[in-house]
């Protein structure tokens, strides 16, 4: 019953910033880990960032550190992904995901939001 809805993607230019949103419902998200993943054309899905609701602790893929920031608004049950200094390589479908903090696998996924970075 967990539902995740991403928004905020679109066509942007190199060097721009974008903030993606993930609206979450149907769960007690203080018990969850929330993650952002992305999948570029022809590439495998890759982990971007995660946040533990109960503590706000964050984790990033090594390649994402610096330009990416994950955050959450508890009152809105919303998770954000801020991406700065966008490059064409950031072009991908960005997915929000959720899992209980005590399990290993993300098992709830949003529909994705497309970020296209023009060069």
Strand content range:
over 45%
Major β-sheet profile: 7 strands, mixed
Q: What is the distance, rounded to the nearest whole angstrom, between the alpha carbons of the first and last residues?
A: 39 Å
Q: What sort of overall outline do the alpha carbons produce when their principal axes are compared?
A: globular
Order of helices and strands: EEEEEEEEEEE
Helix content: under 10%
Rg from Cα: 13 Å
**Structural class per helix/strand content?**
mainly beta
What are the low-pLDDT stretches, counting only 5+ consecutive residues below 50? none
Indicate the mean pLDDT: 96
Number of helices: 0
The count of DSSP E runs of length 2 or more, i.e. the number of strands, is 11
What structural keywords apply?
seven-stranded mixed β-sheet; 54% strand; 11 strands; 119 residues; mainly beta; globular
Task: Report what the structure shows.
- This protein is 0% helix and 54% strand.
- The protein is built from no helices and 11 strands.
- It has strands at residues 3-7, 10-13, 18-25, 32-39, 46-52, 58-60, 68-73, 78-83, 92-100, 108-109, 113-118.
- 28% of the residues are buried.
- The mean pLDDT is 96.
Please give the structural blueprint.
Blueprint lengths: L2 E5 L2 E4 L4 E8 L6 E8 L6 E7 L5 E3 L7 E6 L4 E6 L8 E9 L7 E2 L3 E6 L1
Parallel strand pairs: 2-11
Antiparallel strand pairs: 1-3, 3-8, 4-5, 4-9, 5-6, 7-8, 9-10, 9-11
What would you say about this model in short?
This protein is 0% helix and 54% strand.
């Amino acid at each position: 019953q967990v539902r995740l809805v991403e928004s905020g993607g679109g066509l942007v230019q190199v060097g721009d910033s974008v903030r993606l949103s993930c609206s979450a419902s149907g769960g007690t998200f203080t018990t969850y880990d929330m993650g952002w993943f992305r999948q570029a054309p022809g590439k495998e899905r890759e982990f971007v960032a995660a946040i533990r609701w109960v503590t706000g602790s964050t984790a990033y893929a090594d390649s994402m550190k610096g330009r990416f920031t994950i955050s959450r608004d508890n009152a809105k049950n919303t998770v954000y992904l801020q991406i700065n200094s966008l490059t064409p390589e950031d072009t991908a479908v960005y997915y929000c995901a959720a899992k209980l903090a005590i399990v290993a696998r993300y098992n709830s996924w949003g529909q994705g939001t497309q970020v296209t970075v023009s060069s």
